[in-house]
Design a protein that fits this description.
The protein folds into two domains: 12-186 and 366-381, Glycogen Phosphorylase B (Rossmann fold, 3-Layer(aba) Sandwich); 203-363, Glycogen Phosphorylase B (Rossmann fold), CATH 3.40.50. The protein is built from 15 helices and 13 strands. The longest helix has 19 residues, at 133-151. The two termini are 23 Å apart. The protein is globular, with a radius of gyration of 21 Å. The strands form two sheets. Strands 3-2-1-4-5-6-7 form a seven-stranded parallel sheet, with helices on both faces. A six-stranded parallel sheet has the order 10-9-8-11-12-13, sandwiched between helices. 41% of the residues lie in helices and 15% in strands. Helix 6 links the parallel strand 5 and strand 6 (155-158). It has 390 residues and is of the alpha/beta class.
Length: 390
């Protein structure tokens, strides 16, 4: 489906944080809305996965997003741009996710005359994981803006209970927002089918952005500890440098890892399923304040045991000792110890992998997650989609 024009009107308009997340993480929800006869459009800030979004039958419009900008003049300009675009598209409902789309897009939508709005926090991110004075001030402002957008919306969806509890410490949010906790974005067990994990060679896989809080340094450190005594074990890290992101790992450091040669660094890939099939154990020592990491759900569905942090969003994916292990945030020694457990007893890989597959189907399938979200969305229950606003 092509890019939209001012004459296109949609029943549901998504305001996306990035085009990849719209295709990969919101795709199942979009299809569920379309199955109810609703037309879907999206405001997107980039074009990387635009073909995949159009293949979903979603009409797109481009808007400008500065993820880390705090300039008042620039944010006001982007707010006015969003209001103007939403008014012309005239959707019946707006669904916004991630920080800027929520705090700018929801008030803009209501001022543009949209009757239904929904928010989705896909994790609270580094702002809620750091405690220096500047971050605390910004966090207080963001929490107030979340409360404002939540009060204007039919529902504010969270992907883990810790994030919900965090924002409900704000009285305005607790008093005026309907909070709903769901199990992440979900995963389609058919799209990520089970396969027997290989124990020889034993391969540990990291998948995520190369940010400090994602735990990539801890993964590399653990690999350094284990590699000398375990020459047949492999360590792979999928991801890339993103200099535009706060607390990103620098290109020089990643280049040094590549030169060192202990960890294989294929870079970023569009389809991770081949790497999951080749992996034995998924390792994500993240303390980023995730929603629920999509990579962990994909690994569970594929039948890979997990090692992740005892931190919000990550801990929800692990039944300790059943489908994986939790380690303290920032503790490379503890991480290496749990990885060593699989090296010493490879039988655990298959047993825990099967348990993870069953957990993914029982608790984290996209069908279950979408049913819960659609239940909270009145527009998903009308018998026929109504005309867009005049």
């Amino acid at each position: 489906m092509p890019k939209g024009t001012d004459l296109d009107h949609k029943d549901v308009l998504f305001i996306a944080a990035n085009t990849r997340s719209l295709a990969v993480n919101r795709g199942a929800l979009i299809r569920a809305l379309q199955e109810r006869g609703l037309s879907v459009g999206a405001l997107v800030p980039d074009q990387e996965f635009l073909q995949e979004v159009h293949a979903l039958g979603v009409t797109t419009w481009h808007y400008h997003l500065e993820r880390h900008s705090m300039g008042v003049r620039g944010e006001v300009a982007r707010f006015l741009e969003l209001r103007r675009m939403i008014r012309k598209i005239a959707p019946r409902a707006v669904f916004a996710y991630s920080v800027k789309p929520i705090i700018l897009g929801i008030p803009a939508a209501r001022l543009a005359g949209v009757g239904e709005t929904y928010c989705l926090a896909t994790g609270l991110g580094y702002l809620y994981g750091r405690h220096d004075r500047r971050t605390r001030c910004i966090r207080a402002l963001v929490s107030f803006c979340y409360a404002l957008s939540g009060s204007l919306s039919q529902a504010f969806f969270f992907q883990n209970p810790d994030d919900c509890n965090e924002l409900q410490q704000n009285f305005l949010f607790r008093r005026f927002t309907r909070s709903v906790v769901v199990n992440g974005s979900g995963v389609d067990p058919e799209e990520y089918p089970f396969s027997e994990p290989a124990a020889v060679p034993l391969r540990f896989l990291f998948m995520g952005r190369f940010l400090e809080e994602k735990g990539i340094r801890e993964f590399v450190d653990a690999a350094r500890r284990l590699a000398p005594e375990n020459p047949g074990v492999e360590f792979v890290a999928l991801g890339e440098v993103d200099d535009s992101t706060v607390n990103a790992i620098g290109a020089a450091e990643v280049a040094a890892w590549r030169e060192e040669g202990i960890v294989t660094l294929p870079g970023r890939v569009r389809d991770v399923r081949g790497h999951l099939q080749a992996a034995s154990v998924m390792v994500l020592p993240s303390y980023y304040r995730e929603g629920i990491p999509r990579s962990l759900l994909e690994a569970m569905s594929t039948g890979r045991p997990l090692i992740t942090c005892d931190s919000p969003g990550c801990r929800e994916t692990v039944l300790e000792g059943v489908n994986g292990w939790l380690v303290p945030p920032g503790d490379a020694a503890a991480l290496a110890g749990r990885m060593q457990t699989f090296i010493q007893d490879p039988v655990l890989v298959g047993r825990m992998g099967k348990a993870g597959r069953e957990l993914a189907k029982a608790r984290f399938s996209t069908e279950l997650v979408n049913q819960q979200m659609l239940k909270e969305m009145p527009i998903a229950h009308i018998e026929r989609p109504l005309e867009g606003m005049a």
